[in-house]
Prior knowledge:
The protein is of the alpha/beta class and about 325 residues long.
Amino acid sequence: MPADPSALAAAAAALRARQLVAFPTETVYGLGARASEPLAVRQIFAAKGRPVDHPLIVHLAEASEVEAWVDRGRLPDGGATLDALAAHFWPGPLTLVVPRASGVPDEVTGGMDTVGLRVPAHPLARALIAAAGGGLAAPSANRFGRVSPTTAAHVRAELGPDLLIVDGGPCEVGVESTILDLCDPAGPALLRPGGLSAEALVEALAARGRPPTPLPTGARRAPGALAAHYAPRTALRLAADPDAEAAPLRAAGQRVATLRSGGDLAGYAQRLYAELRALDLAGVDLLIAELAPELGLGAAINDRLRRAAFGSSGSSGSSGS
Ligand code: AMP
Ligand code: MG
């Protein structure tokens, strides 16, 4: 159910009083605090059980608000690429990592000299950010390492009954934002695949004179981008054809659930986390999820599936538990 104006006003008042509020974005639900308030931001790490050196993304209502957060003088091109990508892709699932302005709290940046910025494409998110007075630091609203929430009910299940949640219905994109680092003089680097395809970024950058080659990924690791993440509790295995893989296991008496793309990558991304959650509660021995073609949204889907399966007993072929 969309939140009504009084619910938004109450949520904004809570944020101004340095409390946490969960809110919808087009990617996943975020757990927000005012990014200018270190004491409020610290509560995010406590609520999630998240290591404090993992930086948070600052969510803005308008692209013009970047000025308070970025130190343009330390961008290789003075911010021309930042402005072009913001104009092209915001609001949307793209986070841009830039040198931080003085005064951006260490709590937000994990102590680094850079900050991740994004204008989300959800009207409730932007209304809340504006009403709260700008700049909400918000990671996904789940316990650290667990599957990201794409509905208010998921947030409730992760973080408990006392948290204030703005309910905007199911998230449209379903996987986290794409993260692009703009700080390197050698050019932009992809730190995390996500809801905006790398191909779309390459095309936009090519229009500005960059060769249309794939974006480098290794220039600077995104802190917090761990090999094991987004994990269901049930053993998870990845396969090109989950049902073929499941057939002999089922014949041998194992309870196996499968997750398939149905040939629709946007739909697969949108329901991926909800289905992992639901299947996790179904009490099966093993989940087998379909790997997507490594293109567009498929790259983000596969990235999340691999992290979710990393270290899972499902990958070794055992029944797991
Ligand atoms: P999430 O956990 O989905 O909220 O996304 C936060 C992630 O964004 C972090 O774990 C980092 O991978 C990335 N991130 C945020 N800020 C920065 C930054 N300043 N430099 C590099 N990566 C960042
Ligand atoms: Mg997260």
